[in-house]
Amino acid sequence: MPPPRLLLPVLLLLLIPAAIAGVPDRYTVRRGRVGVRAGNSRLSAQEYLDPTYPVPRPPPVASPTCVVPVLTHSFGDTYGAPPATAAYAPPADCPAPWSLVSLSFSVAVAGDQYDRVAAVWLDGVELLRTTTAEPAPGGVRWTVRRDVTRYASLLRAPPGGVLSVMLENLVNDEFTGVFNVSISFQFHGAPAYLSGVNANAPATLPKSYFEPADLILPVSDPAGESTGGFWFRLQNASHAGSRLVTIPSNAYRAVLEVFVSPHADDEFWYSNPPDLYIRENNLSTARGNAAYREVVAAVDRRFAGSFVPFPVVYTGGVNPLFWQPVAALGAFHLPSYDLELTPFLGLLADGKAHEVALTVVDAIAEWRVDANLHLWLDPNASDVAAAVGPYRTPRLSIKRRYATHRLDGRFSIRAKRKARFSGWVSSSFGNFTTEVETEAETTSVVEFANQGNNKTVRFKAERESEVVIRAAETRKEVGKVETEAKFPMLLRTVTEDGENGTSVVRANLTHSITVETSAEAEGLFERESKLADEQTAAGWMLVSGHDVVNGSAATASVYRYSDDAGRYERAIDARDGSILSDNVTESYQAVTAKRSSVAAM
Ligand SMILES: *[C@@H]1O[C@H](CO)[C@@H](O)[C@H](O)[C@H]1NC(C)=O
Ligand SMILES: *[C@@H]1O[C@H](CO)[C@@H](O)[C@H](O)[C@H]1NC(C)=O
Ligand SMILES: *[C@@H]1O[C@H](CO)[C@@H](O)[C@H](O)[C@H]1NC(C)=O
Ligand SMILES: *[C@@H]1O[C@H](CO)[C@@H](O)[C@H](O)[C@H]1NC(C)=O
Ligand SMILES: *[C@@H]1O[C@H](CO)[C@@H](O)[C@H](O)[C@H]1NC(C)=O
Ligand SMILES: *[C@@H]1O[C@H](CO)[C@@H](O)[C@H](O)[C@H]1NC(C)=O
Ligand SMILES: *[C@@H]1O[C@H](CO)[C@@H](O)[C@H](O)[C@H]1NC(C)=O
Ligand SMILES: *[C@@H]1O[C@H](CO)[C@@H](O)[C@H](O)[C@H]1NC(C)=O
Ligand SMILES: *[C@@H]1O[C@H](CO)[C@@H](O)[C@H](O)[C@H]1NC(C)=O
Ligand SMILES: *[C@@H]1O[C@H](CO)[C@@H](O)[C@H](O)[C@H]1NC(C)=O
What we know:
Layout: H1 4-21, E1 28-29, E2 46-47, E3 65-75, E4 84-88, E5 100-109, E6 117-122, E7 125-131, E8 140-147, H2 152-156, E9 161-167, E10 179-188, E11 215-219, E12 232-236, E13 241-246, E14 251-262, H3 275-280, E15 294-299, E16 302-307, E17 337-340, H4 345-348, E18 353-361, E19 364-377, E20 385-388, E21 396-405, E22 408-427, E23 430-449, E24 454-471, E25 477-497, E26 503-521, E27 525-544, E28 547-563, E29 566-575, E30 578-588
Bound molecules: 2-acetamido-2-deoxy-beta-D-glucopyranose (10 copies).
């Protein structure tokens, strides 16, 4: 028997995996194990869901609607394999232009399995980033729908292209879940934006400015089809995913749409302690580098835009029982982020190759990122004239305050970034100056108490952005889009040791995303919209290693969306794998002729 003073550190080390490396973590409910009765244990296939706004209804016109199935594939033991591919061709019976195109990604899976990340690309342009639900014994199925109208130029281009799907999965004696995926597109005719909109007055923006882009270039890994997918897999903060793009010299508008998902040591980046804490406690976890991340886009090494990503909890995260049968916000449909690059056309639109690069501030392995460059082209000219206005690299101001006392600690970070860009583009529509101003502020507090067994995460990211378009000569405002986004998160977990090396983890989580947008374009439309999506979950689980062997959880989700045309609200209460109530309230006014779709802003 060693003396007690030697025993103590050993005991601490034994406690650590449960308390630090293990909370939050990814878990799976192992139904295959005898006696396991946690959460959803029904024996018939159940529909899982993610309450969001239903894909907009097409206008009630007699235009044809076509459903085009593109790919059906079973993702078994696919780790390290190249993507599954299928040929895509535009629908002969539903020719472009379209009022609406939606993508359906349907999955069925049974057995035991972790959550997995998946993505869909068309010729290297990403159309969807998603993660999967964890299965139940009787199987689960779900469908993710995304409005992909903004990719119309790609979808209509003959002769079509190659659809690629990555879903890396491991199948063995223990993890048996095989994901059966089927993907289809639905096309609806008669574009709303071709009718009911005022004719262009001089010195106003063209209608096409707000329609889907004319060309979309991938900023993704060109080797993606033969390797592990088109995403860049970033390993650290200095690792950039970049691609040279040559854009047509008649581009008059550019928007970079960025897709991102964190994995492995950064899956729970918003709750990571600083390395200092890991070092001081001799921990073996690699989940460190504190709890701030920001995705940065650069054009020819110049900072061109950034955002703090919404912290998406995958379905095995925190407590997998929370996400049965309602997935966490964004887990089935990770948000993409639009950065207005029009001010940089003076740099880009010269017919030469330019580098677009993506990096993640403070990243550790690994971040899967890529982007689509949406470009609008002048139909009447082969060149635009353009110049970038006064440029200054926006500084990140970041204050960190770390206090540790053995396994306890408090780590607070306050980060701010203000960016301001402008540039003019003279096309056959006129000479317009685009001013982009964004202000982002993030606060993050991670607290460990009770020897690291009580953990609290308070995270809040806010971002305001304003895009103002002016007639270059008169400085008169002809268009403006303002967006305000907020996403707070509060997570508390308390871990106690159970019998036989198990632990009991109690957790409470509240997270939400609100986005308010107002957009106006002179002579075209004026529009406001508001989205508020919120979840509150509470429960406990008995954990053995990464397996949830008992537990109970309740999750309340409320999704609210309103715009000038109406309101939609869906509130769902779920408990232990079942829906207790699911209430939808909606009201629509007659759609006015002025209403128009605001693409890519
Ligand atoms: C997946 O597809 C295979 C092959 O068609 C089928 O045997 C299996 O039952 C399917 N799984 C589910 C959960 O539907
Ligand atoms: C970052 O990751 C890249 C790619 O794996 C690697 O080449 C580079 O050495 C890493 N840099 C640092 C500072 O770790
Ligand atoms: C960490 O390891 C060092 C060197 O082995 C030791 O001096 C220190 O006491 C350890 N700290 C803790 C908290 O275990
Ligand atoms: C572009 O050319 C077409 C056909 O010549 C003409 O009708 C249209 O007014 C022109 N548009 C602009 C913005 O110059
Ligand atoms: C840890 O959490 C437990 C359970 O909520 C609570 O009773 C205890 O006071 C907490 N300890 C600390 C130091 O916060
Ligand atoms: C466009 O407007 C800017 C700002 O007023 C001006 O400097 C530039 O010369 C104009 N370009 C053309 C081609 O008229
Ligand atoms: C703990 O493990 C022992 C030995 O395997 C077993 O006899 C006992 O039933 C287990 N206790 C619990 C609560 O699972
Ligand atoms: C979770 O919330 C419940 C109800 O408000 C509270 O009783 C419990 O202590 C909370 N648990 C944690 C881990 O904060
Ligand atoms: C799960 O926990 C509940 C509540 O503590 C208990 O009644 C039940 O027996 C447990 N089930 C198993 C399989 O251990
Ligand atoms: C749904 O409506 C019923 C009846 O009004 C109500 O009891 C229930 O709490 C509502 N559920 C939610 C999640 O709002």
